């Protein structure tokens, strides 16, 4: 049993193979956090591990423990509320009709169940059999108002992951205004951590940063209406000396794609309070009697073997128990996308020529990007007018898709379903369908406004046009783009007192649309995108098995970008394309070989005008595709290890070990070439020390022991700037 309850002491012990999570119910019914860390075989004495009675001055006293006055302000809390004696950042804050904001939660009951229930209307990790996890539902109530919070914990039996979510139920008879509801809170009885997170901007997403936790609060957040390029909804608390293989690491990832806040606060007793939830900035939710509200899921991962092990847990969990559908386990097609090849300047002939040439090289899917609809010759119009531009495509999407399919390729299409251009028939017909505030300017971003997905009619319209397109033409793939953040967040359909619900209602609407469309068209491969990787978060992976990692396609930049992305996201989800040089984002020229090798480390494709490539380049492309097809199963489904990172060293080295452990793929990406330098030995991980491994190209044989302890000179002979290599090793049978 992964969840035990010790009735006499009122202690809950949640365990995963390598971690324990323990809390107890105090005599006043308040749940107190006791421990999160390496698995405990016995929890004997754990309730004595706090210095009860050591109250800091000025902390209000609200409980006696062992006959001593005590304050919840000095005890580690499981789920603190505003209005109690705990004066630190509350996880829950609500306002009641009498104007009061005091919530005092006390234990009512609990239920321990096998498996993991879904979260209504929200994305979440899941199990395929009840034996995979156990779930605790802890019911807490505020006596005065009848408000109930059900805090859910799921402990996985085969992954060191514990998920948390909260359901707020209004069981009283008055309306409650929720002002903040975090999805989890943990008070650590230590503060010697570093805060690691992934920050960025358009075309440079998920850059790794580590800063020491101090007495200043530290917070990452988005107020942009989507999780955004700027901060991924993830952070980790890591030992100060933690690296890829060593140290304790606690990861926190949010399965949500809208405004979020996540961070730590170090208190007067040097305890670190960690939290994550929907951003309470500009948020409220009116809950009528009988209604309930679900806060999204947070996924906590513990590792006692560094950052690498934490990433490995996220990779496997998200690849197999967050991503869904037919393509979850299938090897994905090699694609070619026309965006950087043509931008808006294309016609049917040009696309077919690209497709024909691509087919010769072994490419499997032709994706038509932006510009195929309305009168869209630039990015300033037509979003919402999802009918083909017959000047460019005289035979429509259907005609083009049929011609591409006749070549023996699959056909894919770009949409930006959540948007509306002021210059569109849709806007002229429905000017109130966008997010806006009456009487205020509607600020455009990339010349567009955002459809108001908090409205059911708008969501139904999106489901309608996507269904029509997918029913009419042989479309096997959709690229779902989203190219601006929200401003003037307001809805014409909501009353004044509910306007601050708009951003979250938008997400609920979007999730409904995505759920409906992906379930209705299970054979279509959906790839998410938001100006590259702007909304590449765990929430989106519930609907999209892959995501366009970044608009930055420069191979050197990708060595960092894909490394940072891999802190949480599995390779199977990272779209990665070979593009033309000089690169359109950086002007840099990198070798075709390195552009290919680097893109191999994700969902591989091309994004250039293949018809303009020389015969020699085409030959290289065909060889790359052949090579990728031989290793894509290993990269997409194997275990990934970051051996070297450009965030801390001078090269990127990633190792992929196949599920059956028989094949190992090593990627080495370098930056500036220095003369007169010997290549380093690169030490691999997670091999069978007693087995022998043969390098596929050269036939050299190494023992697992040698590869892991001594290492091999995989970068030997690399010459020129941004050189790279892929080495494949097979276990000798
Ligand atoms: C942003 C995406 O990230 C690009 O790949 C491309 O699809 C453009 N939008 C099209 O407008």
Would you give an account of this structure?
It is globular and about 85 Å long. It has a nine-stranded antiparallel beta sheet with strand order 8-9-10-11-21-17-16-13-14. An eight-stranded parallel beta barrel has the order 22-23-24-27-28-29-30-31, surrounded by five helices. Strands 7, 12, 15, 18, 19 and 20 form a six-stranded antiparallel beta sheet that branches. It is built from twelve helices and 37 strands. The chain is an alpha+beta fold and 733 residues long. The mean pLDDT is 97. The two termini are 38 Å apart. Bound molecules: (2R,3S,4R,5S)-2-(hydroxymethyl)piperidine-3,4,5-triol. (2R,3S,4R,5S)-2-(hydroxymethyl)piperidine-3,4,5-triol (DGJ) binds at residues 339, 369-370, 379, 414, 481, 483, 529, 531-532, 548, 551.
Summarize the structure.
The protein is an alpha+beta fold and about 725 residues long. The chain is about 20% helix and about 30% strand.
Poorly predicted regions: none
- Average pLDDT number: 97
Instruction: Estimate the helix proportion, in percent.
Output: 10-25%
Q: Biggest sheet, open or closed, and with what strands and sense?
A: 9 strands, antiparallel
User: Ends: how far apart?
Assistant: 38 Å
Cα-based radius of gyration, to the nearest Å: 27 Å
Small-molecule components bound: (2R,3S,4R,5S)-2-(hydroxymethyl)piperidine-3,4,5-triol
Strands of the largest sheet, in order across it?
Answer: 8-9-10-11-21-17-16-13-14
Instruction: Give the count of helical stretches.
Output: 12
Query: Oligomeric state of the chains?
Result: single chain
**Count of β-strands:** 37
- State the secondary-structure class: alpha+beta
Please tell me what the overall shape is: globular
What percentage of amino acids are in beta strands?
A: 25-35%
